[in-house]
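quick q for whoever's on today - can somebody do inverse folding on this one?? i tried earlier but teh output was garbage lol. tokens:
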């Protein structure tokens, strides 16, 4: 079962956000974390064709040429100086997707994803897909609880228009 929540809760998810959720829903039985122990790259590979059909560039492997680099800093003569890799990127909409598995909460990978998306040039939206369950823990609920606290406290202003959390 796919769970999802969009932040800020005061904003209605737009068409692309709903389409990203639908992409995950269309492969829900294949990636369901209650029945599968897939690695993040395996989940990404399964959902990739649906994301590509929505206009996303999707990472195809671990080689430099297969990664999706999103600019962060520009140096001399406007040359790219620093970039971060994304699992999927929709440049026209400024939308980055990160798919996580076991490290999502245990190693706070979702926080690194948030930080990197905030640093990326022209990125406005971030989706983080995490397991609903991992080793008896409810990762989706834990990540959602974090973002509920972040937005409710109103103590940190993010440069993103929206954040989508997907539980698979």
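ok took a stab at it. sequence:
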């Amino acid at each position: 079962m796919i769970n999802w929540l969009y932040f800020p809760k005061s904003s209605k998810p737009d068409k692309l956000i709903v389409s990203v959720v639908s992409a995950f829903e269309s492969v829900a039985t294949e990636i369901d974390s209650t029945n599968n122990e897939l690695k993040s790259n395996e989940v990404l590979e399964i959902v990739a064709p649906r994301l590509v059909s929505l206009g996303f560039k999707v990472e195809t492997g671990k080689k430099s040429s297969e990664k999706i680099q999103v600019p962060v800093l520009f140096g001399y003569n406007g040359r790219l100086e620093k970039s971060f890799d994304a699992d999927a990127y929709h440049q026209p909409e400024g939308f980055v997707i990160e798919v996580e598995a076991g490290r999502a909460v245990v190693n706070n990978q979702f926080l690194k994803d948030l930080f990197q998306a905030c640093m990326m040039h022209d990125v406005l939206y971030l989706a983080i897909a995490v397991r609903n369950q991992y080793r008896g823990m409810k990762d989706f609920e834990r990540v959602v609880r974090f973002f509920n606290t972040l937005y409710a406290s109103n103590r940190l202003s993010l440069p993103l228009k929206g954040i989508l959390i997907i539980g698979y």
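fwiw Residues 103 and 109 are 6 Å apart (CA to CA). also Residues 139-153 form the longest helix (15 residues). so keep that in mind when u check it
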